[in-house]
Amino acid sequence: MRAQCAILKQWWPVLLLATLSLASCAVKAEGFEDDTCELHTGEQGICRLPSNCAWLRPALRAHEITFKQLVNCGFDREEPIICCRTVVAPPIKAERVGVRAAVKACSMYDGKRSQLSYHIIGGSEADSGDIPFIGALGYKTDTDAFEWACGSSLITPLFLVTAAHCTGTNRGDPVVVRMGTLNLMALVDPAEVQDRPIKKMIVHPMYKTSQKYNDIALLEVESPFQF
């Protein structure tokens, strides 16, 4: 088998020469390598020796072209020069310039557990009453205090929307929603805030913890928020 392949490789120019000589193909007189030419399809090509035409053999194997359809530019001594299709390299995708703001912000985080306010990048302090529809999600702890670790947005007096990754965490599920305070770290007067136990959670059915798609959930509280 190797001997046959070696023979075919050795006699490839001869076979092509004989085919081009016998076939009724178009001939471009006095053509030289690297001259422009026209393929049988009318496309512009370039005159090349068969050994320098990367398109030729794959095209013949794929029956994209036949020997009779090859356009002969001329000869280099005894070796034919054919019109070769120019192989266009796929475009190179431009690399993104710069770094996303979120990536920069994450690089500033040292990986240690910090207060919630430290995660806000480029924000400004809100005044009381500016964002009454934002609720904090509280998780049970070993003490009577809650751990505030996620946020939510009120869409009706009984329902809030949050991120699905705020449920089923290593802290468990959120158990309460608090509205009416700007500082979750400070002691508050119970009369100034509204705490509502969470009655039901509905996580997007296609959400997966290993992915970032469909990261949304609906929360229903036991009693409506009052405004």
Distance between the termini: 87 Å
Using DSSP, what is the number of strands?
10
Sheet having the most strands = 6 strands, antiparallel, barrel
Q: Classify the helix fraction into a percent range.
A: 10-25%
Shape: rod-shaped
InterPro entries: CLIP_Serine_Protease, CLIP_sf, Peptidase_S1_PA, Peptidase_S1_PA_chymotrypsin, Peptidase_S1A, Trypsin_dom, TRYPSIN_HIS
Family: Belongs to the peptidase S1 family. CLIP subfamily.
Protein name: Peptidase S1 domain-containing protein
Pfam family, one: Trypsin
Can you walk me through this structure?
Among the domains are: 35-85, mini-chromosome maintenance (MCM) complex, chain A, domain 1; 134-221, Trypsin-like serine proteases (Thrombin, subunit H, Beta Barrel). The protein has three helices and ten strands, in the order H-E-E-H-E-E-H-E-E-E-E-E-E. The chain has helices at residues 2-22, 56-61, 101-108, and strands spanning 36-38, 44-48, 72-76, 79-85, 134-139, 147-154, 159-162, 176-179, 194-203, 217-221. The strands form two sheets. The protein has a six-stranded antiparallel β-barrel. A four-stranded antiparallel β-sheet has the order 1-2-4-3, covered by helices on one side. With 227 residues, the chain is of the alpha+beta class. InterPro entries: CLIP_Serine_Protease, CLIP_sf, Peptidase_S1_PA, Peptidase_S1_PA_chymotrypsin, Peptidase_S1A, Trypsin_dom, TRYPSIN_HIS. GO terms for molecular function: serine-type endopeptidase activity. It is found in: Secreted. Residues 120-227 form the Peptidase S1 domain. Pfam families: Trypsin (PF00089).
